[in-house]
C-alpha cells in the first residue's frame, strides 16, 4: 500500500508522525521524548541492550534477558556456537550457493543467482538467527571492509563465509590478514595488478586510511602510502589455488623500504606484506579507530572519549581480541546512558520490520524486497566507495528517506491483504494472540514492534484513538475491526519516531 504524505498523516490522527516531517522537527521530537523518558528504551536498560545488539527486540528475547540478566545474555551472544540455531541453519541449506566452493560459485556465471543468494543469506540471518550479535558484527565488518557486490558477488559469498563470519568475534589481526589475502579485496582495490614496475596504491591507501589507522591516525605520509604499496606488490590472485590468493615473487619489489619509521630490509618476499599488516594492526591508532567505530555503530554518533579509551585499554591488554572489547563497551555506563541516541539505518529498519511482523517474501517476489531497499537507500552490498554505508543519523535524516520508511512499513504490513503486493506473507494476526479489547490489541502490537507494550499512557493514546476514533480502549475487538485497522496500526508504530530511534 503506497501512501502519500497527506494520507499517512491523516491515517495517524496524531502529531506523532507529523513531528518527523523535517530533520529538525524529528530531532527535537526525539529529544523531547527522551527528556520525558518516553522512548521505550529509555529507563529500560534490558530493552535498550537488546535493541542495540540485535535487529529489534523480540518479546521472547526480552523475557529471557529479564530472567538471566544483561551480562549473562551478552556472554551467550558472544559465544554464538553455544546457541542452538538449527532452524536458521536448516533454512540456509535451502540456498546451496552459500556453501559452494569458489570454483563452483564462479562456474554459475553472472545470471543474478549469486547476488540473490548473497542478499538472501544476509537478510535471512539478520531476521531469523538467534545469534543476533554475531549478525550485527558481521554487518559491522562488512561495512568496515566494504566491497560492493557488483561483479564481485561470487567472491563475496566466500569472503563472508570464510572471513567475516569466521573472524567477526576473533582477533582483529586474523581478520585483517584474511581480508588482505582475499580475492574480493584484491580485485576491488586493484591490488591483484600491483607489481614492482607499477605499484598500485589503491589498496595500500585504504588499508591505512579505512582499515587500520584511520584518516587522522598514525601521522602517516604520502611516502608511507607509496612504501606500503611497494611492500604489498606480488599479493595477487591465482584461480588455481584453493583460496584464490597467491604471492607472486616475480612481481614483488624486494628492495628496502621504510614505513612509519620502521625499516623493511631488502631481499624479502611475502614477509614485507605480513610485516606491514602486523605493524598496522598493533599500532595504537588502529585500536582507537576501530573502538571509535564500534562506539558509533552501537552506542552514539558522538561517543565519549572515556568509553573509547577504556576499550582501547582492553584492546591492548588482549592483543586486539574483539570479544573483551565488546564486553567493555556493552557493560559500560556510557552505553547504559545512550538509550534513544541511535537512529536505525534503513536496512536495520527494514530487517526490524520483518522481525516484528513475520513478513517473508516468496521466491518470485523478491524483486519487491529489492525495490523497497533501493527506495530506502541501503541495499545490501550496494555502497560503491570503500568506506561503507554511513553510520550516523545525519546521513539518513531527510524527508525522502522518511517517506520511504513510511511506505515500506505500510507495504510490509498490508502486503498479505493486497492484490497489488501479492507474493509476501505476514504473521500479523498470528503474533498478537486474541486480544479482547482495543487496549489489549494496542499492547499486543506494541510488544511485537518495540519488544514490550508502551508503558506511558501518552504514547498509547494516539494508537488507541486511531483504532477506536473515540479513545475507548475497552472497546471490544471484532474481526471486522482487525481487518480494517490491524495492518495500519502495525505500520504506524513501525513508522513512529519511537521506532526509528533506539
Provide tags for this entry.
502 residues; mainly alpha; two-stranded antiparallel sheet; 28 helices; disordered N terminus
Mean pLDDT rating: 91
Strand content: under 5%
The number of helical segments is: 28
Query: N-to-C terminal Cα separation, in Å?
Result: 26 Å
Label the structural class: mainly alpha
- Helix content, binned percent: 55-70%
**Biggest β-sheet strands, sense, barrel:** 2 strands, antiparallel
Q: Which word captures the global form?
A: globular
Poorly predicted regions: 1-22
In short:
Helix content is 57%, strand content 3%. It is mainly alpha-helical and 502 residues long.
Secondary structure blueprint with pairings:
Elements: H1 5-12, H2 15-18, H3 23-35, H4 45-53, H5 59-68, H6 70-77, H7 86-92, H8 102-107, H9 113-128, H10 132-144, H11 153-167, H12 172-180, H13 183-188, H14 202-211, H15 222-231, E1 235-237, E2 245-247, E3 257-259, E4 262-264, H16 271-281, H17 284-298, H18 305-317, H19 322-330, H20 333-336, H21 346-357, E5 360-361, H22 366-376, H23 399-414, E6 424-425, H24 428-432, H25 438-450, H26 457-468, H27 479-495, H28 497-500
Antiparallel strand pairs: 1-2, 3-4, 5-6
Amino acid at each position: 500500500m503506497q501512501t502519500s504524505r497527506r494520507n499517512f498523516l491523516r491515517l495517524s490522527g496524531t502529531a506523532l508522525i507529523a513531528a518527523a516531517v523535517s530533520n529538525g522537527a524529528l530531532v527535537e521530537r526525539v529529544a523531547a521524548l527522551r527528556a520525558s523518558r518516553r522512548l521505550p528504551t529509555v529507563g529500560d536498560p534490558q530493552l535498550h541492550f537488546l535493541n542495540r545488539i540485535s535487529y529489534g527486540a523480540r518479546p521472547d528475547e526480552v523475557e529471557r534477558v529479564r530472567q538471566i540478566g544483561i551480562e549473562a545474555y551478552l556472554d551467550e551472544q558472544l559465544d554464538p556456537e553455544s546457541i542452538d540455531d538449527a532452524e536458521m541453519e536448516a533454512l540456509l541449506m535451502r540456498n546451496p550457493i552459500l556453501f559452494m566452493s569458489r570454483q563452483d560459485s564462479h562456474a554459475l556465471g553472472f545470471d543474478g543467482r549469486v547476488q540473490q543468494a548473497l542478499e538472501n543469506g544476509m537478510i535471512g540471518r539478520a531476521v531469523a538467527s538467534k545469534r543476533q550479535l554475531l549478525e550485527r558484527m558481521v554487518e559491522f565488518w562488512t561495512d568496515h571492509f566494504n566491497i560492493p557486490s557488483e561483479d564481485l558477488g561470487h567472491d563475496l559469498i566466500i569472503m563472508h563465509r570464510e572471513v567475516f563470519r569466521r573472524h567477526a568475534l576473533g582477533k582483529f589481526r586474523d581478520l585483517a590478514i584474511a581480508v588482505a589475502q582475499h580475492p574480493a579485496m584484491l580485485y576491488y582495490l586493484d591490488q591483484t595488478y600491483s607489481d614492482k614496475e607499477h605499484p598500485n596504491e589503491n589498496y595500500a591507501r585504504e588499508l591505512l586510511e579505512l582499515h587500520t589507522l584511520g584518516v587522522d591516525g598514525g601521522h602517516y605520509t604520502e611516502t608511507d602510502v607509496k612504501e606500503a604499496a611497494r611492500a604489498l606488490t606480488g599479493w595477487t590472485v591465482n584461480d588455481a589455488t584453493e583460496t584464490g590468493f597467491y604471492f607472486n615473487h616475480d612481481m614483488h619489489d624486494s628492495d628496502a623500504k621504510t614505513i612509519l619509521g620502521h625499516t623493511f630490509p631488502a631481499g624479502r618476499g611475502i614477509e614485507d606484506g605480513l610485516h606491514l599488516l602486523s605493524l598496522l594492526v598493533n599500532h595504537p591508532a588502529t585500536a582507537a579507530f576501530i573502538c571509535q567505530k564500534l562506539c558509533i555503530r552501537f552506542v552514539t554518533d558522538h561517543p565519549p572519549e572515556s568509553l573509547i579509551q577504556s576499550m582501547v585499554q582492553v584492546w591492548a591488554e588482549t592483543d586486539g581480541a574483539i570479544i573483551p572489547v565488546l564486553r567493555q563497551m556493552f557493560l559500560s555506563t556510557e552505553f547504559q546512558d545512550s538509550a534513544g541516541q541511535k537512529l536505525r539505518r534503513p536496512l536495520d529498519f527494514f530487517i526490524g520490520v520483518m522481525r516484528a511482523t513475520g513478513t517473508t517474501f516468496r521466491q518470485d517476489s523478491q524483486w519487491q524486497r529489492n525495490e523497497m531497499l533501493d527506495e530506502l537507500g541501503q541495499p545490501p552490498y550496494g555502497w560503491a566507495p570503500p568506506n561503507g554505508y554511513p553510520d550516523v543519523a545525519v546521513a539518513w535524516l531527510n524527508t525522502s528517506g522518511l517517506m520511504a520508511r513510511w511506505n515500506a512499513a505500510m507495504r510490509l504490513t498490508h502486503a498479505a491483504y493486497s492484490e497489488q503486493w501479492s507474493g509476501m506473507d505476514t504473521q500479523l494476526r498470528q503474533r498478537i494472540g486474541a486480544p479482547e479489547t482495543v487496549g489489549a490489541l494496542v499492547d499486543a502490537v506494541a510488544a511485537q514492534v518495540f519488544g514490550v507494550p508502551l508503558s506511558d499512557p501518552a504514547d498509547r493514546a494516539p494508537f488507541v484513538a486511531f483504532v477506536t476514533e473515540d479513545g475507548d480502549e475497552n472497546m471490544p475487538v471484532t474481526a471486522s475491526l482487525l481487518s480494517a485497522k490491524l495492518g495500519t496500526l502495525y505500520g504506524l508504530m513501525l513508522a513512529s519516531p519511537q521506532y526509528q530511534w533506539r
